[in-house]
Known about the structure:
Blueprint: H1 21-35, H2 39-47, H3 53-59, H4 64-75, H5 77-87, H6 102-113, E1 154-156, H7 162-172, H8 183-191, E2 198-200, H9 205-227, H10 241-250, H11 260-275, H12 279-310, H13 316-343, H14 364-367, H15 390-410, H16 419-424, H17 447-463, H18 469-486, H19 494-502, H20 506-509, H21 513-528, H22 558-564, H23 580-583, H24 599-604, H25 642-650, H26 662-667, H27 676-684
Antiparallel strand pairs: 1-2
Amino acid sequence: MFKIPCTYNVAPKKRGVQTGLIRTLELALVWLFDQVPGTEDKLAALLAQEGGSGQSLLLDKDSDAGNRLHKRWRRCRVHKDIDRLLSGKDGVSPRQDTSGDDSDADADARNKRNGDTPPDGTEPSPQPTATDPKSEATPTEPAPRHRHASTSRRRFKLPRNFPRLLSVYYSYTHSWIPILNPKESLDSTAASYPPDGFDIDPEDSSTSAAHAELWCALAVGAFQDATSSYSSGGPEPPDRPSLILAAARSLIPVETEMALGHVKALLVLSLVKLGQDNAGAASLLIGLAVRGGMALTDRQARDRHRDSFSGHSTSSTDDSYSNSLDRVLKTCLMLDTIVSLRLGQTPHMRTNDMKEKTTEETGPEEWAPWVPRAGFGTGNAEGAAQPVQSLSSFNQLYQFFRTLNQAVESGSAGPKIGAANLVQALDPRFSFCNSVVFGASTIPILPSAFLIQATFLSATLTLMADARVSLIWSLMEVLESSISYFGAAGVSPLLVTYMSIASTKTCVRALRDDDKTRWNSLMVDLMSVWQDRTSNREHSPLDAEQSDQTPTRVESATPQLARQAASVRRNSQYPFPMNPNSYHPNSSGFLQTASSASPSTARTMPFTPGSQLDTFPSGFMGHLPSAQASYLMGQGAHGVDYDAIMDELASIDCTDSMESDPQFMANLGFAPGSDLTDMLRGEYGGM
């Protein structure tokens, strides 16, 4: 009747769940399980993760981490392609309007308050190609990995020799402080890294904890391997330990609660600072670990209290988590005690904070054969295979540190804790610690065995008011034997702290001639392990893309270490060689070199133990331009060259008096050549 064309059009903005979306996602998920081995296991582990955090990530609508993941999904290319296929518009760009999704709107609002929302107009970039040099990402970067959803998301690329670094760590560090997950678990985490790197958000505690464990082990292993005599034979030098250390630090969350893996990483990273005799920086890391461990303990107690009312039974996963947490708390007490003794402070953790529960000495960590690594020691350690005895060694070390902690706690009240208590705490299996004659044949050729004996002798020195010189000789003999078998790189960094504490004793100050030289030489050898000795400045282990970042200034410590033996600092409290420029990093977390201060500045600024300490490590201080390494993807480093400014200030020689600088008086308005008397007379009218 009326020939009016119909103007009704199908609304392009569809609300709700599209038909077939759930089945499509299920099929896509199963296809991903088949294509990427280990993906299904990782997702299952997330669902059964410690304290129910994995379930909270996926089910809790108020979870910030979950909201960040959901926002990333809404922006990724796969989501848009699925949307396009289900809508039947193969040749049309997928719809951009998601205003009908209330949960996404809520997530955007929360993220905007937290500063996670990208600037207006920011849209996902198309997948870059090799012919697009101006693209923000590298040509090899997959498009789905956008970093817009979180300002803290970064890309991490494994060092080339990461299998070697993990093996070194588990042979020479995990054998006496078994707090990280088994090596197979870290190998699995490393296997998940694509060749071009892996995007990780440190603030997402549920996912970054496993990576923090991996990188802290790589950092310690890198320092140890750099000092070994092992040569990979490759055309390129190994990655710099300082950059690997910085990467591990940056994986510790700043504004969110830490998971157990982060606490473990803090404790392991503190070993590097102890090896550098930087007790102040180590105490900061250990202090954070103590607080994080106590928070996890409180959370576990609340969860158990809630489960007791709901009738939930304890699973094997809960038991495994509880055992891991107990080990971490014991390590907190051990390291807190030793660093407090080094600083002359009172430990924060006390024995009454701990459960009287011995770590079970079962499983591969106790009975698997210990494997020496090439380049460590003289090779004499490669005899008959011996069980590693990590757990029994850990229990014995904990008993020693527990006795030291009680000695500090006892004070004037209660029974006095002394060296006799150490003998009572000695397990019969480690009776060689108390032998009258220290013969090499009586000690198992294991790094943990030599560390236990050195700990026994050092604790005895600490608890004895008037120690004998023979104890120092015995300690030096144990250290020399340990270096002979495992190399200085295979020796625990705790020995540096032991020697620093022992240096305050009268018996060490009384050492003369050859004994003094012997003591100083041991200290230099042990500390040299934990300096950044590599010279590979062309490549970072985390270089996944080219950027305009300022090159990181990390100087080789080798020339400084060579000068230490010749320039021993004579100090009544620290008679061993002290070079604060080598041992105390600057605020960027990298080694401060001799070029950072002029000779006059070095002479006029005396070194006071505890006065030249680190600020918080770079991983805890946000994104400082001077602290950025080249693994910080998508973030420029166009900062002020603070090193150049400090060099300029240090080059200005200060005058001893105002009379010697006529220009200074002229700048104040007085005639050239005026002195202080003329200035006071002019100010106060003939005073």
